[in-house]
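Batch manifest, entry 17 of 40.
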Amino acid sequence: MVDMQGAVPGLRERKKAETREALRAAAIRLFLEQDPSTVTVNDICEAARVSRRTFFNYFESKEEALFAWDQRLTDELASRLAARPSHEPPLTALRRAMDDTMPSFATQTGWHARKELFSASPELRTKTLHAVFRLEDRLADVLTDRIGCPPGSLYPRLLASATGSIFRSAFITWNPETGIEGLRTLIDQAFDHLATGLTAL
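Output type: structure tokens
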């Protein structure tokens, strides 16, 4: 009985993950096929064969079906940064926290389509910036606590903004056909450039 009860949550979580993925894939496909401004929640639900109620159990808007990835990245990266040893220099802690977060990217699908979508839609690129700003806010808060700076200090905000720029620049440069290791390599290169003061090549 205990084993059966223990198996139920695992099955439920897998089903939820499958539904979330179906909604996300449908949103990406429709946004690529149509003007994103004309795509509705009903369109996404019909394509994914779920009800509106089910959609809103997972996402608050059609855009969130795309940017939920960014929120999970933000949550995981902030948690991993907070868990890094306190003796690590801030830039080292950021780099290792980012590296520890990369396996989560490897489990996601649809990166090629998502990158194509953002390249084709200036409106969605603008919304992507808001997701990056949320990431930077979270990282700045964690860094402020780690370093012991007063709230609102420049240094943790500068480090957080640099990290957001590293991820955004690497993602824009990245060719998804190189796989997650290609993205990891670009992020490593960007951190190397930052560590050396962005001197000319």
